[in-house]
Amino acid sequence: MNPSAPPQALPQRTGATIINGPWPTYAQFRSLPERERWTIYELAKAGRQTMEDKGFEMAETYDAFVRRVTEELEL
Question: DSSP assignment of 24-68, as one string?
Fold first, then answer.
């Protein structure tokens, strides 16, 4: 990162509000049985989809989101 370079604007859909975080963490659910961790994962995806359906845009890409949540849940 170049400290003298101005920050770049995130691409944005017209009228979308970009959510930069902080993101919810799912690491506290690691100790749950695998079936329950998959349920938490599905709920996380549904929650993100609901936000996007309401016009919010996440700064975290979907692929990065999936990677982060599956790592946190150890799936």
Answer: P--GGGTTS-HHHHHHHHHHHHHHHHHHHHTTEEESS-HHHHHHH
Distances (CA, A) of 24 to 2, 12, 17: 28, 22, 18
Note the pLDDT tens digit of each residue in 7-62. 444 455 556 678 777 788 999 999 999 999 999 999 999 999 999 999 888 889 99
Residue 49: burial class (beta carbons within 10 Å; 0-12, 13-18, 19+): exposed
**Residue 20 DSSP class:** -
Q: Residue 19 and residue 51: Cα distance in Å, rounded?
A: 10
Residue-range domain boundaries for the chain? 30-72
Q: State the helix-helix crossing angle for 34-53 and 62-72, rounded to 10 degrees.
A: 150
